[in-house]
Write a structure and sequence with these properties.
Elements (H helix, E strand, L loop, with lengths): L12 E5 L3 E2 L10 E10 L4 E15 L3 E11 L2 E2 L5 E8 L9 E15 L4 E12 L11 E4 L7 E9 L1
Antiparallel strand pairs: 1-11, 2-10, 3-9, 4-8, 4-10, 4-11, 5-6, 5-7, 5-9
């Protein structure tokens, strides 16, 4: 609440929305981190921010397959310490043919505190980890795994300044 002669500064906040990112065109052994398209913000002024991400992962896996999708923040190109979070982790040990899939969708919201100078760039990256269970082999392009975009279940980053 402001008192006579004092004005509260306007809030500093913003958000960006992500687009779909698919992993099924990447080798099953690929463990690289990928930038989430559209999920980048620039912090407008120095201070401490609460940065919140929402990421929704989806997979359709064959029997004897294990999949994980992780998210993390990059601050000016460097991974933010302890920002890795599971979005999705599932394993299917069982029997079935090449047309027997288990579909899983999972969302993760994470909040991190970032103290930064003006103009710092914060972006979201995702990683897929895939493996075989019980000695099964993964086929190229399988399993289908992706991160959904806005309008499909969500990919969003927002920031809100909480301290100078």
């Amino acid at each position: 609440m402001s008192t006579a002669g004092q004005l509260r500064p306007p809030p500093v906040f913003g958000e960006a929305f992500g687009q779909r990112l698919e992993f099924d065109n990447k080798p099953a052994t690929d463990t690289a981190w990928y930038d989430m398209p559209g999920m980048t913000v620039t912090l407008p002024e120095a201070g401490t921010y609460a940065v919140t991400t929402e990421v929704t992962g989806q997979t359709a896996i064959l029997p004897n397959t294990s999949i994980a999708i992780l998210q993390r923040l990059l601050v000016n190109g460097a991974p933010l310490t302890n920002s890795d979070r599971f979005v999705l982790h599932t394993g299917e040990a069982g029997t079935g043919g090449s047309s027997t899939y288990t579909a899983v969708r999972s969302a993760r919201t994470a909040c991190h505190f970032v103290t930064a100078a003006a103009g710092v760039i914060v972006k979201v990256q995702v990683q897929r980890l895939a493996g075989a269970v019980n000695g099964a082999a993964l086929s190229p392009g399988q399993p289908y795994t992706g991160v959904l975009g806005t309008g499909e279940g969500g990919a969003r980053i927002e920031y809100r300044k909480i301290a100078d």
